[in-house]
Amino acid sequence: MxxxxxxxxxxxxxxxxxxxxxxxxxGMPMLGRVLLKIKEAGVKEVVVNVHHFAHxxxxxxxxxxxxxxxxxISDESDVLLDTGGGLLAxxxxxxxxxxxxxxxxxxxxxxxxxxxxxxxxxSRADVTLLAQxxxxxxxxxxxDSLRLKGWAKKGTDKTIPPGLDTxxxxxxxxxxxxxxxxxxxxxxxxxxxxxxxxxxTTPFYAANAAHLNIRGYMPGEDYRWFDIGKPENLLKASExxx
Length: 242
Hints:
The protein is α/β, with parallel strands linked by helices. 30% of the residues lie in helices and 26% in strands. Helix 3 (82-89) packs across helix 6 (184-195).
């Protein structure tokens, strides 16, 4: 699944007349780059959620023959559901036995998705999160085996779950790419029933760390990674992926 429904407010004015997913890096929209990366990993069926300028994403996919993939649209035109709600809303297209790659449309990277899926399967994880040792004020926290224990905001005592002791835990930023099992939808549905249909995966994962096997994944080799949601990062990505 590709999250392509974001408003792209940090990229204004570029997103005044197009969705963030169609902002270009070296002449190619980010959505196309992510689709090609997922296709390279062997994926044949994809769900793309839409909200902001939804018709433009539909037109782009049609003009490119869906990049040779079977693509379904999860339409959030009426209400933007955030990542957790968006994933749950797309569950009808994602049910099955295969692990699901979940990729933000604004993340440009070149590590091997195949290796991430293999690590997910071999660890028997329910969820595998791309974990990065970079600065972020809000991080997931893991034990030494990279099993998720919760979430923390640096410089405060705010944690999920509340009161979590983070002293011996490792703080790692989330890289916008994950692999999840279809069994996760049962837990997402329960969470939505308690918190409402609009929610992020971040508090959901942190709140469920105790009874779900959620693992961090750090690629074994150096790789390039850019969140193109900010103009300065878009420029850096363009210089790197020319």
